[in-house]
Amino acid sequence: MTDEVSAVARAIVSCTRCPRLVAWRTETAGPAGVGSPVAGFGDPQAGVFLLGMATAAAGGNCTGRAFTGNRSARTLVAALHRAGFANQPTSEHVGDGLRLDRAWMASAVRCPPPGNRPLAAERDACLGHLRAELAALGRVRVVVCLGVFAWDAALRCVDADPRPRFRHGREHVGPDGLVVLGCYHPSPQNTATGLLTPPMLDAVLHRARELMV
């Protein structure tokens, strides 16, 4: 990991900007949990950035790694493996051997919110971390936004005005050429109802690979 990426990670995990989230992440972590904000994870040479809504109480807040240890993580990482971005199809815990190739994953809000509903003010408080992470990574050409909340955060980062509405598969090119790509979130609800199917997720990741070149 580069010095710049490591510095951003240290700033994220020590963040206490949002009192509501500080209290909730500590309460939900449990005795074996991490209970601190979760920095991004992946390849520092990433061309694709997978952006979720918020750290999951039963996922990153317990494991300390983005998209790890819950059902959304299983769906996403299995798709990353099929697309050639991950060396294995599972993401269960830190030290499980997962490596990403040309991909990075993180959330717009780095702490778990009560009811899995982050506030707009909490999104805005975390935007500085997202901007810093993108700048430190340097090679990112595509941000795959997993849901409306992530889409809105990414568009604010690229200063899109006006901000186009979210749609699965929609693309928006920022002033610096960064492509914001919409995708339904791989949540259990979305996959169980068929709103997001494996072929739909695969198609988005295939498009992201095309765009990152």
From TrEMBL:
Keywords: 4Fe-4S, DNA damage, DNA repair, Hydrolase, Iron, Iron-sulfur, Metal-binding
SMART domains in alphabetical order: UDG (SM00986), UreE_C (SM00987)
GO biological process, one term: base-excision repair
UniProt cross-references to InterPro entries, sorted A to Z: UDG_Type-4/5, UdgB-like, Uracil-DNA_glycosylase-like, Uracil-DNA_glycosylase-like_sf
CDD domains in the record: UDG-F5_TTUDGB_like (cd10031)
Pfam families tied to this protein: UDG
An annotated Gene Ontology molecular function: uracil DNA N-glycosylase activity
Domain Uracil-DNA glycosylase-like: 39-205
Tagged with keyword Metal-binding: yes
Family under the similarity heading: Belongs to the uracil-DNA glycosylase (UDG) superfamily. Type 5 (UDGb) family.
PANTHER family given in the database record: TYPE-5 URACIL-DNA GLYCOSYLASE
Identification of the protein by name: Type-5 uracil-DNA glycosylase
